[in-house]
Amino acid sequence: MSAREQILERARRALADVTATEPELDVPVHRPPPRPGRPAAQVLDLFAEQVADYRAVVERTTKTGVAGAIVGALHGRKPRAGAGPLRILVPPGFPAVYLPAGIEPVADGPDVPIAVLDRCDGVVTTAAIGIAETGTIVLDHGPGQGRRAATLVPDLHVCVIRAEQVVADVPDAVAALEPHRPQTWISGPSATSDIELDRVEGVHGPRTLHVLIVTDDA
């Protein structure tokens, strides 16, 4: 008798007096009642507070004020090239009406090398979802959001998110997102700490995250 047959024979003897039972199919499942929704203004206030708590810059603006707000986000930054306008990476599908004058837009795409991204002074994107409870921005890399490298290489990330895209918490975000799409969850600018707990920013992503919450024009 082979080793395999010996093992199977021992298993049969051990289970000889065990009575097979049908699995219980109708197991009651406890489902919590739906959570009451929070007022939209309260959700936006919490989102702004939580994002700022991560040392990101948060600003509220209107659709017609986005371009001016982007100019404000770029104020004081010096071009990496040393002269000329700031080179800002622009993903495909980013609304052209949001782009301010006085910058050098750099069109991104899958064939643009990382070295080009590294020479950009910043990147502007839209977002898929904002989560108020955690201050998190979720990109699913659809139109205007760019590929993952686009938001990791430049030193500044200006993210434009509409007020209606902000949800209360993570369950609401998961329910709204399309599960088959790639996702990047961003909670504040890139930061890490060593064993001495010295905070270092910009190690594996942008040092500065500037979030523009856009509401409808009055």
From TrEMBL:
It holds the Pfam family LUD_dom. SUPFAM superfamilies: NagB/RpiA/CoA transferase-like. Residues 118-214 form the LUD domain. It comes from Amycolatopsis methanolica 239. This is LUD domain-containing protein. InterPro entries: FTHF_cligase-like_sf, LUD_dom, NagB/RpiA_transferase-like.
